[in-house]
Structures are given as structure tokens and as C-alpha cells.
């Protein structure tokens, strides 16, 4: 039995210090969310699940509305907290936590911790909704860490290559990743 999971990385959201959960989409992000709707609206989708962060919810909301579905919020899919990176650039900090999955900055989560949290949520969904089609609104790190769990080729370089938004279609057979295809075109 095959289960389809569309991992949708959130669209553009302007960074606002201290508003990780509340910040919504930019005008470009709203436009891209409408484009996601047009790309996937003909797909029969059984379940919409999202990180509780506003930008992830708002990215899949137009598609959920056209499909007349509600969005289930899952705390396990929230973005990774990188922590206090001190003198490092954001990109260098990301490189370090992907090179060493146990590396953690003060107040943050290691890749191993964030991956275990997110994969735990995905495994529950794969078990409960086997044979269904799911849309998951998520974040760049969490999307990468979920895919990395099933195939180690998805790491720092993959994370860096993703766009906001981005769509990856994952096909699972018996809860094993069988195929990955990018659905978003720039």
C-alpha cells in the first residue's frame, strides 16, 4: 500500500525578532501559497497537517480551503530552534549542525533531537493514515531532517538548495521511502 506525503516548506516570511510562531507570510509568500494551491488542487488529499507556526499554516491554507479540509496542527513539526550561534553566521551555524548531528548551540536543538521529534510525528501519521495522501506544512530544517532520516543524501547541501516555498512529493510503501520528486518549479 502506498502513502503519499507532500512536504511543503513555508513560503517567504519576513523575519521579525521574537515572533517565530506568529510571523505570517509576506506578499510574495501569499502569492506563492496561491500558486501551491493551483499546483496541487486537483490532487485528492485526505489530510492536512502543519507546524503550529503561522507561516507554515498560511502556506497550505489556500489549498486546504479549496479542498474543504481543516489543518491539523502538530507541535512535533515546529521549526528547529538553532539557539545562540554567537559569532557565527546563520549559514555557518546550519552547516555545523548538519555536519555533526549531535552539535547543539546554547538554547537550541541538535539535528538529532529535532529529527527524532519530527520523525516521531511523521511515523504516527504514516501508521494512522497508511494508503492516504497527506500535505504537511513545514520548515526547511524539518523537511530536510525528515527526508534525511529515510535517505542520508538529504543534508546541508539539500537544505541550502531548497526554496521558500518548496514542495517535495514522498511516496512511501509499507512506511519505507520509495520515491521522492520535487513538485515546485521556480
Automatic annotation (TrEMBL):
Source superkingdom: Bacteria
Any Gene Ontology CC annotation: cytoplasm
PANTHER family the UniProt entry points to: ADENOSYLCOBALAMIN_ALPHA-RIBAZOLE PHOSPHATASE, BROAD-SPECIFICITY PHOSPHATASE YOR283W-RELATED
InterPro entries: His_Pase_superF_clade-1, His_PPase_superfam, PGM_Phosphatase
Annotated source species: Paenibacillus riograndensis
Name of the molecule in the record: Phosphoglycerate mutase
SMART domains: PGAM
MF annotations from Gene Ontology: phosphatase activity
Amino acid at each position: 500500500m502506498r502513502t503519499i506525503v507532500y512536504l511543503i516548506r513555508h513560503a517567504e516570511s519576513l523575519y521579525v525578532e521574537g515572533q517565530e510562531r506568529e510571523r505570517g507570510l509576506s506578499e510574495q509568500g501569499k502569492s506563492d501559497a496561491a500558486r501551491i494551491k493551483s499546483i496541487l488542487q486537483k490532487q485528492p488529499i485526505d489530510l492536512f497537517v502543519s507546524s503550529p507556526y503561522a507561516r507554515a499554516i498560511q502556506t497550505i491554507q489556500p489549498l486546504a480551503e479549496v479542498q474543504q479540509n481543516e489543518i491539523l496542527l502538530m507541535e512535533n513539526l515546529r521549526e528547529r530552534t538553532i539557539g545562540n550561534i554567537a559569532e557565527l553566521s546563520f549559514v555557518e551555524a546550519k552547516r555545523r549542525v548538519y555536519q555533526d548531528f549531535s552539535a547543539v548551540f546554547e538554547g537550541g536543538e541538535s539535528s538529532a533531537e529535532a529529527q527524532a521529534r519530527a520523525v516521531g510525528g511523521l511515523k504516527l501519521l504514516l501508521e494512522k493514515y497508511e494508503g492516504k495522501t497527506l500535505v504537511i506544512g513545514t520548515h526547511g530544517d524539518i523537511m530536510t531532517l525528515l527526508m534525511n532520516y529515510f535517505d542520508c543524501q538529504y543534508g546541508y547541501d539539500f537544505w541550502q538548495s531548497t526554496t521558500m516555498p518548496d514542495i517535495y512529493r514522498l511516496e512511501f510503501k509499507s512506511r519505507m521511502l520509495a520515491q521522492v520528486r520535487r513538485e515546485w518549479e521556480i
